[in-house]
Amino acid sequence: MADADGGGGCCRCCFSFILTSGLTALFMWLSLRTSNPVCSIQDFYVPALDKTANSTTNTTISFDLKLDNENKDKGIYYDALNLTLYYGPNQSHPNPIGNATFIAFYQGHKKNTHRKKSVETYGVVPWEAASNGTAVFRVDLATAVRFKIIAWKTKKHKLVVGAQVEVNSFGKKVMKKGIRLKSGAPELGCYRAPVGLFVVSSFFILGFI
């Protein structure tokens, strides 16, 4: 009887260990999941297309780029932000007309950051609009990000996103809300920590290492 009770206690101990390890590994996996920042164009102004301003020779474009870190407890390290503007009647092959660069920076969790700039464009004189008074531009953003999880930093991951921006006869973007820059590349999605990392971390927390 004593041996039977000892065997039952050992099974219960093993089951408890497996269950606790599994739950801890699941918790660690959920904790280490990250989401890429949300990048959007909040404002976009082309003076040369503003019929009320009479600035047809003004070759600048002003914009407001917003970056949202929606991760609850993970900061983001950005490499330099490289933004390129495109314009042309053929949106399949638009012409690059300007670019802007912003220095690298760190963004805390649940924070948003604005990067505003007025860019001097080239190769677009005179500006042309469609018959309805609108013009279509494209904005592409390229950078690389690392995520800070507690005191640990992930490896760098490329982030390349973009979107079309339609401008009205007042030189402003037609869409009232911010225009989200999106990526068509599936590998640029959310970061997933290596399986071995959260398994080892689980054992460390449980005190088995």
UniProtKB/TrEMBL annotation:
<feature type="transmembrane region" description="Helical">
    <location>
        <begin position="12"/>
        <end position="32"/>
    </location>
</feature>
<dbReference type="GO" id="GO:0098542">
    <property type="term" value="P:defense response to other organism"/>
</dbReference>
<dbReference type="GO" id="GO:0009506">
    <property type="term" value="C:plasmodesma"/>
</dbReference>
<dbReference type="InterPro" id="IPR044839">
    <property type="entry name" value="NDR1-like"/>
</dbReference>
<keyword id="KW-0812">Transmembrane</keyword>
<protein>
    <recommendedName>
        <fullName>Late embryogenesis abundant protein LEA-2 subgroup domain-containing protein</fullName>
    </recommendedName>
</protein>
<dbReference type="GO" id="GO:0005886">
    <property type="term" value="C:plasma membrane"/>
</dbReference>
<keyword id="KW-1133">Transmembrane helix</keyword>
<keyword id="KW-0472">Membrane</keyword>
